Amino acid sequence: MKKRNKCLAGMAAVALGMLSASSVVLAAGDTIKVGTFLSVTGPASFLGDPELKTLQMYIEDINAKGGIDGKQVELVHYDTGGNAKKAVNFAKRLIKRDKVDVIVGGSTSGSTLASMPEIEKSGVPFISLAGSVKIVDPVSPWTFKTPHTDRMAASKVYLDMQARGITKVALISGDGGFGKSGRAQSLALAPDFGITIVADESYGRKDTDMTAQVTNIRSSDAQAILNFGFGSGPAIVTKNIRQLGIELPLYQSHGVASKKFIDLAGDAAEGVRLPAAALLVADKLDDSDQQKAVLVAYKNAYEAKYGPVSTFGGHAYDGLYIALEAIDRANSTDKTAVRDQIEATKGFVGTSGIFTMSKDDHLGLGLDAFRMLEIRNGDWALVE
Question: 150-276: which CATH topology?
């Protein structure tokens, strides 16, 4: 895959293409082993389920078309159920027993951050599918990620608030790894945007009613509300806000960028804004948009087989192809060579944006990779 950009763009345009073959045979081994640990069941299943389906769908197609340089791609998967301790054990198993060549996984920030020390110590290239900025800041040699960070999400939201003249914000967040990290970033960045946090509430993963927290927010002088969380929590918060008659602008994070949030929140989701990948509005993009062909191809392929697309499956698409293209460029599954090639990723057109990584940037996305969306009539609409 020496002509990576042309190869990927062509592959995306036909929905399910094959990585190009090179003339050099890869290193010893009958297969290329891609390991993954995902939250396919449990409270974060809305992340892990589309991620696993995406990996399976594309690996099956790659293999049907001859694999990479004649080698089949083998997916070795474990379901964490959203449990960080299980994630650590599965990461160890992938490394020591399964001897995978690369790991593409970690649905949640908690499972990723818990597993990173073991993965870093073992020297296996790891592309996380989780959101926390802590995964890549500071940079760890063997760890990369494809989703936008919580820091980017907070920045994008605050920019939109600035444009609307909002200066006082109520913050509410989940108490999991993603919510805590998003809260920390939101608090840290607020002064840079001239924003004051006038309320700071939180909720637990198993909470089924946040009326008390929302009532506290109602008593503040907030001009808008920002919720950082994922799973059912943000939908409950959204419903409670509307039930209490609060009509303030409501922002969610990219942690709810799937149709499931709209389904769970129902009519209460109307008017909610959030930063998300362009995948959710692929059909609404201008034809001149550099990402559109990739996004439409992925969306059509996924929805033909599984139903409504989410940005989370898209993160898996990006991680898989960044990893496989790195292996192809390295002409080897040597872990150091593959790691170096992942870090050398440049101009990769993915579902999350256009990636250009470096030794100082193991994400490779700018703030322009985010689109500000608003939920209108039960669907996504571009704000900008």
Answer: Rossmann fold (3.40.50)
